[in-house]
Specification:
globular; single chain; 11 helices; about 15% strand; alpha/beta; binds cytidine-5'-monophosphate
């Protein structure tokens, strides 16, 4: 089972958005053997397939750091029971929708407070698919996405969770309000020369910019998954991060 010790944590988490759990494992295993990468994000499209749970065990046995991105959102009691049910699985970070509200977040966190393992819950603030207009017209939330993100991130921190998932452009504003060890995890990472087909990451940032703004973890998917040489693409991002780390040493 999950140990109380954290595997070596690097900022890069590869989003295993592959067609199925077996393809996810093949890619993760290859990258762990051929690069120093140890961090992976498993999302619901892979986790809910047959073999999804086994994928987590295989990654964990290989020493991986695992973010389970299930974005839970329900009444507090149901989320409490769901997080309890997931405690049997090896993961280090688990996501919930901050829009579930303070009581839901507290109910989820209370499960972790009783365990003596290294785990953290992350609140997802506002999905990057929303704009000021959809928040207002479809969800009836007034104010900007930026305001909603700060409000939700503050609520997540007040509920005692370990951090939030936010877009690269929201890292600095959140960091102004919430200091480490509160974790900021961001997708939307692109190297200056990366080309992703039909890219829907409207507000992307380079790994260096995101880290300098205060991100703890960077979630990268298609720039590695779609590359004809995923090992090389992954190594390039790891190299760009170690150059940045040595500049700050
Ligand atoms: O865009 P990329 O493939 O690098 O995405 C990595 C992760 O970012 C995905 O697994 C998804 O969770 C998230 N994502 C997002 N907004 C998008 C597209 C993906 O937050 N528009």
């Amino acid at each position: 089972m999950l140990s109380a010790h954290l595997p070596p944590i690097q900022p890069l988490l590869l989003a295993l958005d592959t067609p199925n759990p077996e393809a996810a494992w093949q890619l993760a295993n290859r990258l762990m053997q051929e690069t120093p990468l140890k961090g992976f994000k498993v999302g619901m499209s892979v986790f809910y397939q047959p073999g999804g749970r086994q994928l987590l065990h295989r990654l964990h046995e290989a020493g991986a750091f695992i973010m389970l991105d299930l974005k839970l959102h329900d009444i507090p009691e149901t989320v409490h029971r769901s997080v309890s049910a997931l405690m049997d699985l090896p993961w280090h970070l688990l996501t919930l929708h901050a829009l579930g509200g303070f009581d839901m977040l507290m109910a989820a966190q209370s499960v972790l407070n009783k365990a003596h393992l290294y785990r953290a819950l992350l609140g997802v603030t506002v999905l990057t698919s929303h704009s000021d207009k959809t928040l207002h017209n479809e969800l009836g939330i007034n104010g900007s996405v930026a305001d909603a993100v700060i409000r939700l991130a503050t609520m997540v921190a007040n509920a005692g969770l370990g951090g939030v998932v936010c877009s690269p452009h929201e890292i600095a504003p959140i960091r102004n309000h919430l200091s480490p060890p509160f974790k900021l995890v961001t997708p939307g990472i692109r190297l200056a020369d990366s080309h992703v087909q039909g890219d829907d990451q409207l507000r992307a940032a380079t790994p260096q910019t995101a880290r300098e703004a205060g991100a703890d973890f960077l979630v990268v998917g298609r720039p590695i998954l779609q590359d004809s040489d995923p090992v090389r693409a992954c190594q390039k991002i790891l190299d760009s991060l170690s150059t940045e780390a040595s500049k700050h040493a």
